[in-house]
Amino acid sequence: MSRALSRVTALLAVIVLSFTAWSATASQSAAADPFTGYLMVHFTGESANGEQIYLAHSKDGLRWNDLNTSAPVMLSTVGTRGVRDPAIVRSPAGDRYWIVATDLRMASGISWDDAAKRGSKSLVVWESRDLVNWSAPWLLNVAGAISGAGNAWAPEAIYDSATGDYVLYWATNTPVNGAYKHRIYAARTRDFRSTTTPAVYIERPGTQGIIDTQIIEVPGSVGGFRYYRASADGHITIEGSNSILGSWTSIGNLSHMGISNGATGGTVVEGPMWAQFNGRNEWNLWLDQFATGRGYMPITSTNLGSTRNFRTRSDYSMGADRKRHGSILNLTAAEESRVLGRWGNSAPVNRIQSYNFQDRYVRHVNLDVRIDPNVSPLQDAQFRLVPGLADNSGHVSFHSVNYPGYYLRHYGYDFVLAPDDGSAAFRADATFRQVPGLADSSWTSFQSYNFPDRYVRHLNYVLRLDPITDATGRADATFRITN
């Protein structure tokens, strides 16, 4: 190769690399809109529906409001059909999101010993492009290749800009070197559908196990490190590093604040959960006071380089639901608008009155749906008309007031009250277009989303989804939304 050609080739390479770097920076900058709010993903406990995906919203990072009227936003339909310890992850470009959670349902009656030694070795994953419409869940087997693995718990993930993929890490109970205990394992993934071979990421000395670990990336390396992690390992241990999978420096623990994971007295906590305050170098470390059942409490720092910089605070509120081990995502204005538009609690409580039997209202009874007079309890006839589960533009879904997470849906053209299972079929069956009443345009009729030639109507007082062909059908398919 001639010297001149070499110079041209080198120049082209520089141009290509510069363009690639500019493109990546521009793409990330386009996604880096200012944050205006916060979204918490969590579970609530071991109740019938407590081990599912719940959301809460905050404007200031301290005071939280439950979304979706305190009902789960997604139900696991795979594995154990329950999830705990959910983590939410955003892609660097802000065009994709994942929720990754423990596949475990203690409400099924399993013992903690069985769950730890003979539990699921998979995680449950959902994917979304807008934080509102989520895929069906799938199982990601992360611990199957680990010798003697008993489970896979408390997953977390963080994007590694050095390698352009995600470090996925979780706790697995394994017998290694004579010690059967939980260790943190890690693997790399690009799509949360496959991973590299897992390896031990964090191990504590002797018999001390470790389950809950969460990492946060700190802009400007405030405190001396780019990354900080908090781990529940008897104490709440804080460590710092400049590389996710590199060496970590112990910064200390919170024992001087009377806070531990059980190694000392005082406040016993778990599930450390980081969140940076929007627009400033200040962080909350949320800690779940599981031992007393009081839920999360925040401690705050403006410099994570020393545990002595943390301060307790009392100016917070957690909403109605008890929030168990989860994670927090800072929201842009666009993301916040979408989330609140879909799951905000502004929808009023309504009843649905029949046009041709005006003493009767739509109600559920034993999960069947009909129109009745004198409904008791009244809540059986109360619903919130929320944005349609399958299409939130011009469509609605009927969310039960006294069965949170349950919606009216058609099934075989009959109507039932059923829990949202997160499937596309459920969303479509539970979505309707509000149109002028077929018998009286000042009233309302409801056209099916997935069978647009059919409308909600009653027949012998039982709710159905039928084509409407005559005056009787038009009257049966006409309703009034009342308070």
From TrEMBL:
One of its GO terms (molecular function) is alpha-L-arabinofuranosidase activity. Keywords: Glycosidase, Hydrolase, Signal. The keyword Hydrolase applies. It comes from the Bacteria. Residues 1-23 form the signal peptide. Pathway: Glycan metabolism; L-arabinan degradation. InterPro entries: AbfB_ABD (IPR007934), AbfB_ABD_sf (IPR036195), GH43_arabinanases (IPR050727), Glyco_hydro_43 (IPR006710), Glyco_hydro_beta-prop_sf (IPR023296). GO terms for biological process: L-arabinose metabolic process. Belongs to the glycosyl hydrolase 43 family. PANTHER family: ARABINAN ENDO-1,5-ALPHA-L-ARABINOSIDASE, ARABINAN ENDO-1,5-ALPHA-L-ARABINOSIDASE A-RELATED. This is Glycosyl hydrolases family 43.
